[in-house]
Design goal:
The chain is mainly alpha-helical. It is 24% helix and 0% strand. It has ten helices and no strands. It has helices spanning 2-27, 53-62, 76-87, 94-105, 112-127, 140-150, 157-179, 206-215, 221-226, 535-541. Helix 3 crosses helix 7, helix 5 runs antiparallel to helix 7 (157-179) and helix 6 (140-150) crosses helix 7 (157-179). It is rod-shaped and about 120 Å long.
């Protein structure tokens, strides 16, 4: 490790000396102690300039004024120079920009459309590298850098260029947001930070290049400068794969059909954002705020959404296969027809969520809160539901085949016509549950609490109900052929029209059980060992 560190230090020294020599050759000046790739902000001489709202407002208005001949007073070349001079060594803060916008809106000299057009033209050329690639005599970033270095401010060529471009981007984002709230301007000012897609260019990568260029001098530089200005902006169709967008504010932004695969959006604010059909596969969204976001048909496969806030979000038809949603907040979210195959939802809150017809096969829902959730028609086969809260959940026609439900709370749940083939419900709280017409063939329900449950017309072939509490349950019309009811509490249970052929009733409690003449008892085992068998039933079966 010590040897690697020494090699690293030597490489840094070599790179710095090489860059100093390149600048010296380019400018004819001797450069000492200037490291163009390093942003230095820790000394008094290297502090970024602080722009006042008045100063910025004055410049923005000046850039759109006409001269006496009604032509624009400041030429394009002069504008470019002014922009670099004003914005080359500063980072606009949100409070300053907001104050400037307020002042501009109240000013009679504010010409938003023309200002937008001029700044957008500059931004387009900046993205193409027109300024930094210019010859030395025309190179505006270099001119600003040398001016600052003459003031003993250590700053690199790219730092000046990046500062300028990002500040112009911020101004364009603010003009776009302002215009979209006004009917007379919304059609005239539409800003596409990543460029506008068309039929031959479905994805646009301009913004990704800006992010990577900005982060080349310091990881996270783009988000620290521009991140809080991104709300409400238009990124439709933008390609932002692998982008570092940690903590960025995309609230109410349009990211429709954008590609954010493998992007780092941890802690980002995406509340109310349009993410319809967006590719977020393998993205890091841990701790992100996606409350109320539109994620219809979004691809979130393998994404990390741990501890994310998705309350009220629309995730219908979204692909969340193998996604990590541990500890996520999904209350009242809409996940109808979503694919959650093998997803991790452990300890997530899905209270009152709509998961109708969702595919949750092999998902981990241990400790998840699904109280009052709608899971009708959903696929929960082979799902882990240890200690899951399914109280009052709607599981009509849901497939729970081979689900692991140990310790789950299902009291008050509606499982009508549900499929529970091979499911493990041992020791589960099923009080007041509705299981009529459900398929419980081969299910393990030993010691389960089914008191007061509606299990009418259900299929219970070979079901293990040993020592289960079926007190006051409704088993009328159910097929219990071959079921194991040894030691079960059947007191006050309704067995009318039930089929008990081959069932084992050893040590079962039949106190005040209800039956009728249509009850089928053929080949019932252990009835002679059952307790509290009503006298009338004994006489009917010839046990006295």
């Amino acid at each position: 490790m010590v040897l690697l560190y020494k090699v690293w230090k030597r490489l840094i020294t070599y790179v710095r000396r090489t860059e100093e020599q390149e600048i010296s050759n380019l400018t004819g000046l001797e450069v000492k102690g200037v490291f163009p790739l390093v942003k230095i902000n820790n000394t008094q001489n290297n502090l970024r300039e602080l722009l006042s709202p008045e100063q910025l407002q004055q410049s923005l208005e000046e850039w759109t004024k006409n001269n006496d001949s009604l032509s624009i007073k400041i030429s394009d070349r002069q504008l470019d120079e002014n922009i670099y001079d004003l914005l080359g060594n500063t980072a606009l803060k949100i409070e300053v920009v907001q104050a400037v916008m307020q002042r501009l809106v109240a000013s009679k000299d504010f010409r938003p459309v023309l200002l937008f057009q001029r700044l957008e033209d500059f931004y387009r050329r900046w993205c193409e590298g027109v300024f930094i690639d210019a010859a030395p005599s025309e190179n505006l970033p270099q001119k600003k850098m040398l001016q600052l270095q003459a003031q003993n401010i250590a700053i690199g060529l790219r730092q000046v260029d990046i500062n300028t471009g990002l500040n112009v981007l911020i101004l364009l984002l603010e003009l776009h947001r302002y215009a979209q709230e006004r009917d007379d301007l919304k059609a005239q000012i539409i800003f596409y930070p990543s460029g506008q897609r068309h039929k031959d260019n479905f994805f646009t990568s301009q913004l990704l290049r800006v992010i990577n260029y900005s982060d080349a001098i310091e990881i996270g530089n783009f988000c620290s400068v521009v991140g809080e200005f991104l709300q409400g902006s238009n990124f439709s169709g933008a390609y932002l794969g692998d982008a570092n967008l940690t903590g960025a504010n995309f609230s109410a932004a349009n990211l429709n059909a954008a590609n954010l695969g493998d992007a780092n959006l941890s802690g980002a604010n995406l509340s109310g954002a349009n993410l319809r059909c967006t590719d977020l596969s393998s993205a890091n969204l841990s701790g992100a705020n996606l409350a109320g976001a539109d994620l219809y048909r979004a691809d979130l496969s393998h994404a990390d959404l741990s501890s994310a806030n998705l309350s009220g979000a629309d995730l219908s038809h979204a692909n969340l296969s193998s996604a990590n949603l541990r500890d996520a907040e999904l209350s009242s979210s809409y996940l109808s027809h979503a694919i959650l195959f093998a997803a991790n939802l452990s300890d997530a809150n899905l209270n009152s969520a709509n998961l109708s017809y969702a595919d949750l096969c092999r998902a981990d829902l241990s400790g998840t809160n699904l109280n009052h959730a709608d899971l009708r028609g959903s696929n929960l086969s082979d799902t882990i539901l240890f200690s899951t809260n399914l109280r009052n959940a709607i599981l009509i026609a849901a497939d729970l085949s081979y689900a692991k439900l140990n310790g789950a709370k299902l009291n008050g749940a509606n499982l009508r016509s549900a499929i529970l083939l091979g499911a493990d419900l041992g020791g589960v709280d099923l009080t007041d549950v509705i299981l009529n017409e459900a398929d419980l063939s081969g299910v393990v329900l030993n010691e389960a609490d089914l008191s007061g449950a509606d299990i009418s017309d259900a299929i219970l072939f070979g079901t293990d109900l040993s020592y289960a509490n079926l007190s006051s349950a409704n088993l009328s019309g159910s097929n219990l052929s071959g079921a194991i009811l040894s030691g079960a509490d059947l007191s006050y249970t309704n067995l009318s029209y039930a089929i008990l052929g081959g069932a084992d009733l050893s040590d079962a409690n039949l106190e005040k059980v209800t039956w009728n003449e249509n009850l089928e008892w053929e080949d019932v085992r252990g009835l002679d060992k059952a307790v509290n068998v009503p006298e009338a039933l004994k006489q009917q079966l010839g046990l006295v």
